[in-house]
Write a structure and sequence with these properties.
single chain; Rossmann fold; 2 domains; five-stranded parallel sheet; two-stranded antiparallel sheet; 9 strands; signal; metal-binding; Ni/Fe hydrogenase; 4Fe-4S; oxidoreductase
């Protein structure tokens, strides 16, 4: 589809959303102004968001309009078996960004962490929101979900309704469904072997399409960006094999890592605190899972977009990948050093998001370990001259 056709579709959709009733007396532009963000700051953010979502920078005014209309769509956010870290990372920032302010302003009709009501009142609020906004609300679910004969491990409210049943009821009339964080996307640490509660991802609980936004936690831009995509297009974004949006999970950590040049040059940290660590060398030999992990952490970063784990000196642990707790460990050892067979052992370094699957990387490209060994050998030869 040509961009002019996309723009026409977007404008029609935004006009439809604009005619929906406002849920706040205030407005997002006014809120941003009160927090010290100028219109120029907002448009710069909109330009960056457009590019991040794979749109031309000329779509910036359209993205800005979509953000201004974000309060028209009600959001129901359910908590399952989780640590609430995905919510906390957005809500507890000491220096709010435009992303987090927009998230704060979205009409959260139900969110157990920030709502005042509890018990039967909370249950009543949830039922009321589902009925009132039937077919209009966005459902976001955080946390793994005990299922099957183990559903009783997670019950909600005074009536003891299981978390899985809550998800089934809420997803039935949702306009769009997002699994926020790795626990909801893939089961997370709750689903780690031996998975005593039979924790499952949201996609195993509902038969409706689910957009996975994994990470522990995912960046605020990945959460807000997917809401904006739905506002703009009213459809699912292009997804990879694990139902992750390609615009945010289409590249590996390895592809955009600031230490990639050191990897190619065979310059590796051998132990934490050594000279290589001080010089910012590659962390692959310290267990970095960047070559196997698809996410945009290196571009979006955390803590107000100031840093991310690899920049801070620790390798990626692969938290946005399915079953990472089992498949990516030990976290501080290269996967190819394992004494036992792994689906990642001998994994290639040049797989793409479209090709990746359990075990598929084993037959693509040159092995990461071989590349690392060759690079290190060349480096040593160069040093000996």
């Amino acid at each position: 589809m040509k961009y002019d056709n996309k723009l026409s579709i977007i404008k029609d959709r935004l006009e439809t959303i604009k005619n929906m009733p406002k849920m706040h007396d205030n407005s997002i532009p006014k809120l941003l102004e009160e927090k010290g963000f100028s219109r120029r700051d907002f448009m710069k953010w909109s330009s960056a968001m457009a590019v991040t979502m794979g749109l031309p920078v000329t779509f910036a005014p359209t993205v800005a309009k979509a953000a201004e209309l974000a309060d028209r769509l009600p959001v129901i956010w359910l908590h399952m078996a989780e640590c609430t870290g995905c919510s906390e990372s957005l809500l507890r920032t000491d220096t709010p960004t435009i992303d987090s302010l927009i998230f704060d302003y979205i009409s959260l009709e139900y969110h157990e962490t920030i709502m005042i009501s509890s018990g039967w009142q909370a249950e009543e609020n949830l039922e009321h929101a589902i009925e009132k906004y039937k077919g209009q609300y966005i459902l976001m679910v955080e946390g793994g979900i005990p299922a099957g004969s183990s559903e009783f491990y997670l019950t909600v409210g005074p009536h003891g309704i299981t978390g899985a049943e809550h998800c089934r009821i809420a997803s039935k009339n949702a306009a769009a469904i997002f699994a926020i964080g790795t626990c909801s996307s893939f089961g997370g640490i709750q689903a780690a072997n031996p998975n005593p509660t039979n924790a499952q991802p949201l996609s195993k609980i509902t038969d409706k399409p689910v957009i996975n936004v994994p990470g522990c936690p995912p960046s605020e831009k990945n959460i807000v960006g997917n809401v904006l995509h739905y506002i703009l297009f009213g459809t699912l974004p292009a997804l990879d094999n694990y139902s992750r949006p390609k615009w945010s999970y289409g590249l590996r950590i390895h592809d955009l890592c600031e230490r990639r040049g050191h990897f190619d040059a065979g310059e590796f940290v051998q132990q934490f605190g050594d000279e290589g660590a001080k010089d910012g060398y590659c962390l692959y030999k310290m267990g970095c899972k960047g070559p196997y992990t698809f996410n945009n952490c290196s571009r979006e970063r955390f803590n107000g977009h100031t840093s991310w784990p690899i920049q801070a000196g620790h390798g990626c642990i692969g938290c946005s990948e399915p079953d990472f707790w089992d498949t990516m460990g030990p976290l501080e050892e290269p996967l190819t050093d394992r004494l036992y067979q792994s689906v990642f052992k001998g994994m290639g370094s040049d797989a793409t998001a479209d090709k990746i699957g359990i075990g598929v990387l084993a037959i693509t490209g040159v092995a990461i370990a071989a590349h690392a060994a060759i690079g290190a050998s060349r480096k040593n030869k160069g040093d000996s001259k």
